[in-house]
Amino acid sequence: ELTGLSELADAYPRTLSYGQKRRLAVAAALALKPRVLILDEITGGQDAIEKEAVLSVLKRLNEEQGVTIILITHDMSTVLRYAGRAIVMAQGAVAFDGAPQALFAGGHPLAEWGLSCPPVAAVAGTLLPGEAAPIDAAALCQVLIEKMRRNGSCN
């Protein structure tokens, strides 16, 4: 039920979308009641809707059932929005270990590590230099509105 696939219980596997197949794989792993799930590029090749469906399942698993999720990804927007901790591996060693917002706040050689800054963090870096990056565009707007109110630029 958590994966949103209950209504497809009798569906033929070939009729499932790529994202539904990914969620089915997560459901199969959950049958073993793991305390930790390690997922490698679980959202790769999915459209935005399916990607969000998979990530929201993982978020609920973590928050409601206490399952630790280790997500291996090159999608830095996903890291910024969903991860509580980011560990960057570069040249076989840990190059960064900390909050995703700190990773994208500046001062780290993302390009050297083969990473790119999420668009919302890049905009935030320009508008709010040195501050932690908001997790998404809505959060960035809220931060900017609050900053404008404090500065008397917005009524």
Q: How are the secondary structure elements laid out?
A:
Elements: H1 18-30, E1 36-40, H2 48-65, E2 68-72, H3 76-82, E3 86-90, E4 93-98, H4 100-103, H5 119-127, H6 137-150
Parallel strand pairs: 1-2
Antiparallel strand pairs: 3-4
Helix pairs in contact: 1-2
Report on this model:
- By secondary structure, this protein is α+β, with helices and mostly antiparallel strands.
- The protein is built from six helices and four strands; from the N terminus they run αβαβαββααα.
- It has helices at 18-30, 48-65, 76-82, 100-103, 119-127, 137-150, and strands at residues 36-40, 68-72, 86-90, 93-98.
- It has a two-stranded parallel ribbon with strand order 1-2.
- Strand 3 and strand 4 (93-98) form a beta hairpin.
- The radius of gyration is 18 Å and the shape is globular.
- It starts with 17 loop residues before the first helix and ends in a 5-residue tail after the last helix.
- The model has no long low-confidence stretch (mean pLDDT 83).
- Number of E-type strands: 4
Strand order of the largest sheet: 1-2
Most strands sheet: 2 strands, parallel
Helix and strand succession?
Answer: HEHEHEEHHH
Tell me the number of helical segments per DSSP (H or I, 4 or more residues long): 6
> Based on CA inertia axes, which overall geometry fits?
globular
Strand content: 5-15%
First-to-last CA distance: 45 Å
SS-based class? alpha+beta
Low-confidence stretches: none
Please estimate the helix content: 40-55%
Overall mean pLDDT: 83
The Rg value, from CA coordinates, equals 18 Å
